[in-house]
Amino acid sequence: MQTRRSALAPALLGLGGLLVILVVWQLVAVFAFTRPNGSYGAVPPPLAAFERVAADLVDPAYWAGIGATAGAALTGYLIAIAVALALGVLVLLLPRLEAFATQLGVVAACVPVAAISPIVVLLSPPGSRAVSVVLALLAVEFPMIIGVLLGLRATTPGQLDLVHAYGGGTLTAIRKVRIIAAIPALLSALKIGAPAAFLGAMTGEFFAVGVDSGAGRLLISQQYAGDFVGMWAIAILATAVSALGYGVIALAARWLAPWTAHSSTGGLR
Amino acid sequence: MTDTGVQLSALTRSFTSRAGTVQAVSDVDLQTPKGSFLSLLGPSGCGKSTILRILAGLDTPTSGEATVHGLSPAELRKEKSLGVAFQDHALLPWRSVEKNVRFPFEVAGVPVDKAWVSELLGLVGLESFADAKPWQLSGGMRQRVSIARALALRPSVLFLDEPFGALDDMTRQRLNLELQRLWMEQEATTVMVTHGIQEAVFLSDYVAVMSPRPGTIKEVIEIDLPRPRTIDLMSTPEFHHYVDRATQLLFH
């Protein structure tokens, strides 16, 4: 009984929160943003926005646009992962490089997007999505590096002593313990990174030259046309795609590292 | 001498930091016979864990020598017949109980003795938990897994660092009885680090009482009590005599 209640409570709270947001949204849209002639203003009511989402979903052009953005996001995401993992290997072999790895992550997080994006656009040919890829990469790199470094620290001294006492060397410790112990922290970084990558790729489209499709591009054209309902629909779709990325990795984590929730027995103490 | 168990000769370990040099272990001499149970008893910071870590090859002495059965820690490792258990059970959370017990075989590069692993799980009363994960077990059960793992390679040498230190008194008492039974079956030369006086007297053939900073051995008490020792033994005057002697040494 008690366990059921405790499992149900967060779900109910979440649902309640969503309901409050929708009600406030509706009130704001109707009372603050409806024009005298009755048409919707900058904040349309939720129902109109969701109707538009439904309409967008059957429009292949939207699928293509969101797919293009997601593709650039995925490319940046994968490069960021590859860089973070390569740094992780370096730190494993040469622990003194840890400070350098952290600094690289901090730099990636601190790079001013507004300054770097035009430079990337200048460097890439027209029609290239490079700027989206770069912004996705920059958005993901810092959490990824921190995740990798946290993961490498997740091994307890006792676990390493155990390996060494039984005659195992550094490589055995890495292979049998350190890599596996790092998985929970890695997965949680991947989880945080997925929505960040999509947002970065979308932002990139605001700078890209000669790129006509993508969630960000759709947003820009709708802004010019004053299509507020369309903009809100894109915002909702983008949120859904980001949440999907987060959710898929969260599910994978539950399957790949089921001990994560019980880290008190060794993981992250 | 073929019958030597643990031998420490002028063992010294000092740690140097910016604040200066600290002598964790200072000029320690000690010798026990093969197959005996030795406890290093002392307050925290007396260097008892340092001695154990040196014996297990996890630390190196500044000067002096530590051997077991005439073998240096490095040689001992190559024999692949030692076992270790720490206060931090150091179980790998992604492995089942059985696979945790198999871990020493994998690290030492020895084929897994499956029959012995399942027998061990029976010996520590966990045969029905072979496929359970560490986080599904109680604290006492985790330490039992850790003891089973320590015995995996049928060790002739066993190093225990406060293996039950994090447990409540009752569980600890029960596990000490189990440990004695297992130890008597294995006949391994054993070194245990503890700050529990009763525990040290109950389990040991020799109790080396240590003093802190610099860590030295004040006296080695030989515990001449018959085995198997029982809970009843702990209320006899003989037992109390040894406990009182150790207490006196620790506090004076």
TrEMBL record, chain A:
Positions in coiled-coil regions: none
InterPro entries to which the protein is assigned, alphabetical: MetI-like, MetI-like_sf
A Pfam family of this chain: BPD_transp_1
Signal peptide, first to last residue: none
Transmembrane segments: 12-33, 61-94, 106-124, 130-152, 185-209, 229-253
Domain of life according to the entry: Bacteria
Stretches assigned to the ABC transmembrane type-1 domain: 66-253
Subcellular location: Cell membrane
Membrane topology, as annotated: Multi-pass membrane protein
Keywords from the UniProt entry: Cell membrane, Membrane, Transmembrane, Transmembrane helix, Transport
Gene3D superfamilies xref list: MetI-like
Keyword Membrane listed: yes
Homology family: Belongs to the binding-protein-dependent transport system permease family.
Protein name: ABC transmembrane type-1 domain-containing protein
UniProtKB/TrEMBL annotation, chain B:
Pfam families from the UniProt entry: ABC_tran
Domain annotation ABC transporter: ranges: 6-237
Molecular functions per Gene Ontology: ATP binding
Keyword Transmembrane helix attributed: no
Cited InterPro entries: AAA+_ATPase, ABC_transporter-like_ATP-bd, ABC_transporter-like_CS, ABC_transporter_ATP-bind, P-loop_NTPase
Keywords, comma-separated and alphabetical: ATP-binding, Nucleotide-binding, Transport
Protein name as annotated: ABC transporter ATP-binding protein
